[in-house]
Amino acid sequence: MDFIKELEKEIIAENNLPDFKSGDTITVSYKIKEGTKERIQQFQGVVIQRKGSGMTETFTIRKMSGNVGVERIIPVASPLIESIKINKKGAVRRARIFYFRERTGKSARIKEKRAVV
Q1: CATH number corresponding to 2-103
Q2: What are 46-55's pLDDT values in tens digits?
């Protein structure tokens, strides 16, 4: 068991992902393979949740595409993640903000956390 945990730590350390939590607006650059071609697609949205730990940790991002909500579940340890950029830090009280799915218009905004200088 210890060998597996050490191996997981090494792989996760290679990712060098920034610290983000639910409520943050992030942009994920994700590698997409279509046949023999490979391209990088950016997915920008609000983090609804982070779930799991170690190699099995995932996070869910939600964005609005037109009037349709699109959610994507991405593993943290995925080799297809090119980079993650944090656009805004959100001030939310919960770890999982599923209530955000029913919100539209002004109520679908998340307050931005102020940076302490």
Answers
A1: 2.30.30.790
A2: 999 999 887 8
